[in-house]
Amino acid sequence: MSDDGDGYCAIGDTARPPEADGPPYAECVLCREPTEYPESYKGITLCPVCEWQEAQRAACSG
Q1: How far apart are CA 62 and CA 11, in angstroms?
Q2: Residue 9 and residue 28: Cα distance in Å, rounded?
Q3: What radius of gyration do the chain's Cα atoms show?
Q4: What is the distance between the alpha carbons of residues 34 and 39, in angstroms, rounded to a whole number?
Q5: Is residue 9 within 8 Å of 25, Cβ to Cβ?
Q6: Residue 38 DSSP SS3
Q7: Is the separation of the CB atoms in 38 and 45 below 8 Å?
Q8: d(Cα 38, Cα 22) in Å, to the nearest integer?
Q9: Who has the most CB within 10 Å: 26, 42, 50, 56?
Q10: Residue 36 carries which DSSP code?
């Protein structure tokens, strides 16, 4: 089995929004806590805790 980096479980860094240089920060869509992303970013933003929890839920098993 070769590891060519194209595994079906891999998520690229291109799906992440840009990090903010400073306040104001966008709210997490799950818990409403501040995120690391700019308030002007349009889309789904998660705080570090919720982002980690979502990654655990979506992680490959086996």
Answers
A1: 17
A2: 24
A3: 14
A4: 9
A5: no
A6: strand
A7: no
A8: 8
A9: 26
A10: E
Q: And the tokens for 23? A: 């306040």
Phi, psi of 34 (to 5 degrees): -65, 145
- Spatial neighbors of 21 by CB under 8 A, at least 6 apart, are 38
**How does DSSP assign 2-34, residue by residue?**
---S--TT---GGGSPPPPSSSSEEEPTTT--E
CA angle 22, 46, 5 (to 5 degrees): 105
pLDDT of residue 1: 45
3-class DSSP state of 43? coil
The residue type found at 27 is E
